[in-house]
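Field log, afternoon session.

UNIT: design team B
ACTIVITY: writing a sequence onto a fixed backbone
BACKBONE:
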């Protein structure tokens, strides 16, 4: 599951599309949201309704990279991740704080690793989420 928080009071569901869907999240109902640092929380769904159809990596060597032929990725996941990246980048470049967590059932907040992501260093085409990680975005 993918949860995002931001300092922006904007209604992120205005960005809902075929590939990305924002729904207000309640910190009271999911303890995993406790790792998020900003006031306004959102569940981020993809075309499938859940957060599955985004680019994700789990375990092993985690890093940002373009899709590779040897690791087939669904075209919808690539499109959805790029679209979400653009929303995050717009928020950050407008001066808002943004973070998100990529987490699954059964994880405890203490098991989630933090990673800072400079949008100047990580391009849209290379961005992907890492399971069990808390992303903090900056310009």
């Amino acid at each position: 599951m993918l949860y995002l928080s931001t300092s922006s009071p904007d209604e992120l569901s205005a960005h809902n599309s075929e590939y990305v869907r924002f729904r207000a999240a309640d910190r009271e109902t999911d303890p995993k949201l406790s790792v998020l640092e900003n006031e306004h929380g959102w569940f981020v769904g993809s075309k499938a309704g859940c957060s599955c159809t985004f680019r994700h990596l789990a375990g092993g060597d985690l890093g940002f990279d373009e899709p590779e032929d040897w690791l087939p990725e669904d075209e919808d996941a690539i499109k959805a991740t790029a679209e979400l990246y653009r929303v995050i980048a717009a928020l950050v470049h407008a001066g808002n704080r943004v973070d998100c967590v990529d987490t699954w059932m059964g994880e405890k907040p203490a098991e989630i690793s933090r990673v800072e992501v400079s949008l100047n260093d990580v391009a849209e085409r290379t961005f992907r989420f890492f399971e069990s990680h808390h992303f903090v975005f900056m310009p």
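LOG NOTE: The chain has one helix and eight strands.
NEXT ACTIVITY: expression trials, pending approval
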